[in-house]
Write a structure and sequence with these properties.
May be part of a spliceosome complex. Involved in pre-mRNA splicing as component of the spliceosome. The chain has 254 residues and is mainly α. Helices cover 71% and strands 0% of the residues. The termini are far apart.
Length: 254
């Protein structure tokens, strides 16, 4: 009985001994795993909050850009040129005030900042009368033609005096004057008009020229009329049909 009790005492757990170490070892991994899971969860929440803030910021920036684009679309087409002009005028005014404060002449200071090449170019431009700047629109071309014709008119003072004696105050028509159809042009005036018209026709014929033919260009037409049509179609729809045309030429079109 003593031996049995001794053997039984060997297997009984000691409340103050090493019997509790096994439960502590099992609790430590579970606590570490919980801490790691909690840390991972906090990291995910932090990233989620950052993404949420970035989304709100992007939404705000997109809204601001939409508002700015709407403002730009509502502006007149030449607003950028007007804005640049106004900014340049403000700079000129500030420069004038600075020169006035220093007691200097603005025109003299401005000329000192201009290079010799620019000054020479501007002088040559001023000397040219009615320079041909190329075609911009039909209104500008009509104005150039009108100015050219009016410069050719030379007043005939003798004829003016004769008409003044003949018509008196009626020579200066008012809203109540009835002079329509009473003026008969002179033969010299008609000859001048005919000579000017012939000169215009001759000058117009010189401008009418055929564009040079490109021998290296691809032939995709059957006649000249079809070539003009293909050029128009290419100008308007070329960027949309370029890939289809290439596939047809390679033979890979479906």
């Amino acid at each position: 009985a003593a031996a049995v009790s001794a053997l039984g005492g060997l297997g009984s757990p000691d409340p103050d001994g090493g019997g509790s170490s096994g439960s502590e070892d099992e609790a430590r991994p579970s606590t570490a795993a919980a801490a790691a899971a909690e840390q991972k969860r906090e990291e995910r929440l932090r990233r989620f909050r950052e993404l949420h803030l970035k989304r709100n910021e992007a939404r705000k920036l997109n809204h601001q850009e939409v508002v700015e684009e709407d403002k730009r679309l509502k502006l007149p087409p030449n607003w950028e040129a007007k804005k640049a002009r106004l900014e340049w005028e403000l700079k000129v005014e500030e420069k004038k005030k600075e020169c006035a404060a220093r007691g200097e002449d603005y025109e003299r200071v401005k000329l000192l900042e201009i290079s010799a090449e620019d000054a020479d170019r501007w002088e040559r431009k001023k000397k040219r009368k009615n320079p041909d700047l190329g075609f911009s629109d039909y209104a500008a071309a009509q104005l150039r033609q009108y100015q050219r014709l009016t410069r050719q008119i030379k007043p005939d003072l003798e004829q003016y005096e004769r008409l003044k004696e003949q018509y008196g105050e009626a020579l200066y028509p008012t809203s109540d004057s009835l002079l329509h159809g009473t003026h008969v042009p002179s033969k010299e005036g008609v000859d001048r008009m005919v000579a000017d018209l012939e000169k215009q026709i001759e000058k117009r014929e010189k401008y009418s020229r055929r564009r040079p033919y490109n021998d290296d260009a691809d032939i995709d037409y059957i006649n000249e009329r079809n070539a003009k049509f293909n050029k128009k179609a290419e100008r308007f729809y070329g960027k949309y049909t370029a890939e289809i045309k290439q596939n047809l030429e390679r033979g890979t079109a479906v």
